[in-house]
Amino acid sequence: MNKRLTPYYLMTIPAVVLFFVFLTLPALQGVYYSFTNWNGFGDNFDFIGFKNYVNLFKDGNVGHAYWFTFKFAVVVTILINIFSLLIAMGLNAKIKARNFFRGIYFLPNILSVLIVGYIFNYMFSNVFTIWGKNLGIDWLSTNILGSEQHAWIGVVIVAVWQGIAYNTILYLAGLQTISRTLYEASSLDGANRWQEFWKITFPLIAPFFTINMVLAMKNSLMVFDQIIALTNGGPGRATQSISHLIYTGGFEGGEFAYQSANSVIYFILIATISVVQIRFLQRREGDV
Amino acid sequence: MRTKTNWVVMLLITLGTILILFPLYMTITIALKTPEDMLSSVFGLPRELHFENFTNAIQMTNFFNALGNSAMVTTATVVLTLLTNSLVAYAIARNMNRKFFKGLYFYFISAMFIPFPIIMLPLVKLTAGLHMTNLVGLTILHTVYALAFNVFVYVGYIKSIPVALEEAARVDGTSTWGTFWRIIFPMMAPMNATVGILICLSTYNDFLLPLIIISDTSSYTLPLVQYIFQGQFNTDFNLAFASYLMAMLPMIIIYLFAQKWIINGITQGAVK
Fold it and tell me: How does it sit in the membrane (chain A) (predicted)?
């Protein structure tokens, strides 16, 4: 070994060991257990091949958790990106006290997701319902989180309220890279606001759009804290997300091996979606 | 060039801030009211400030213990992350032409695609076996899991620092370690700020990792305490909100003072 390189190896070895032990190893163990019938605490278990995987596909609860999580993630990602782009454009316009407003809009990002969930939980049950009753609006006067059909919308509202903060800041950073002269030139050419947005603004912030879409999607596919704070998966299993199912089934339901198989599938899906999203969006960036 | 303020946008932006601030207004006012006050008006300002909600919440949740735990884990994680993650990234960035280091780079950053629930179940067994179900274990795990993203941003940043300085130092007889600590680490200050802010926020607010790792009541962190006491809060919202507010307050105070810094730091981290 080249002597000059020795310090470099020493710098990385501890990290490699820790990384392997606490990340790669558990991931591999998860895959290993997914082929067994271990309940998580007993001493003995058997290999059962792909049985867990086959059962996963027949399991209505699992199917529902995937359906809920994907529906939730797609809606949240779209809403977050629409709202945060609008807010960022507002903050980038000619307004007073821009830094003050920027500070307010970013505030939710620094708060605990769990605690924000608890606060909204209270507002859904005790604040919005009062408004509903006072204003005589039927759908507002009952707690949305108690409705099997609509509870997911409550979770979406909380995720969007908090998720907007981060994406707004990134869009704002993107918008600030665009030179004002481009807009001046386009208005001389007689372009309207709408054309201006689609022909100048949007193409030029494409890289920010990519990051924001990927991050928002990945975060909402992993939704957990909000579920714990708002609905605990209920009513029934109406808002049970995949990670909540893995947690409750794996730790409390004696389904350690079964939920390990579930997490392998979950991993494959998230990795695939992230890679496809990045590829697709980057190709779009290249086109303009 | 001075142009007129766009008042329509200004109005919309102001209305938007109400949506952001309303839940926080509710948190503060409810934390200062009694259940009787709530009956007369849920939205109004408290008629009297009931600070006993705070003292009761402090007693009930053993607040200062949890605050101490959160502060300890967060501080230790920030320090350990800055020192170790930057060092690893430095070794990788300066040897990217070698297979071993290039392989390491991709090994580390590929973990950005691994969602936590995948490793959650076996991890609990592992940490229990290693007696890491405590604050030390929590700190180590936070530091290790931050590595994927941090290696990615640090390597990008180190590449932009010219090698010439290090070569000059080496000619003067400075060791590789000395070069890193005395030349590279200080030069990475902007990136260190970004990484420090991000890891500080994510560690302080993290719920899932302490939830599955920590078993001993005396090691509970602030978010975990809110979860554990939720059942008992249910009957007393004023107490609950006092507790929430106290748990969020340290970060809000830091944010008030370092707002510009935090926002710039986070933007830097994502744009890199």
Answer: Multi-pass membrane protein
Which residue on chain A is closest to B100 by alpha carbon? A9
Model ipTM?
0.89
Tell me which residue has tokens 């070069």.
B179
User: A126: domain range?
Assistant: 73-286
Find, in chain B, the residue whose alpha carbon is nearest to that of A113: B205
**Closest residue to B121, CB basis, from A21, A30, A114:** A30
Indicate which of A13, A62, A94, A112 best probes the interface with B, i.e. most B CBs within 10 Å of its own CB.
A112
CATH of B57-270, one of 1.10.3660.10, 1.10.3720.10, 3.30.230.10, 1.10.10.10: 1.10.3720.10
Residues 55 to 84 of B: which have CB under 8 A from any A CB?
Answer: 84
Instruction: DSSP letter for A5, please.
Output: G
pLDDT tens over chain A, length 288 residues: 567 788 888 888 888 998 999 999 999 988 998 898 888 777 788 888 888 898 888 888 899 999 999 999 999 999 999 999 999 999 988 888 888 998 999 999 999 999 999 999 988 888 888 877 777 777 777 888 888 888 999 999 999 999 999 999 889 988 888 888 888 788 788 778 888 888 888 888 888 888 888 889 988 998 999 999 998 887 888 899 999 999 998 888 888 888 999 999 999 988 888 888 878 777 776 654
Chain B, nearest residue to A257 by Cα = B121
Helix count and strand count (H, E) for chain A: 15, 0
Tally A–B CB contacts below 8 A: 237
Task: Output phi, psi for A89, to 5 deg.
Answer: -65, -35
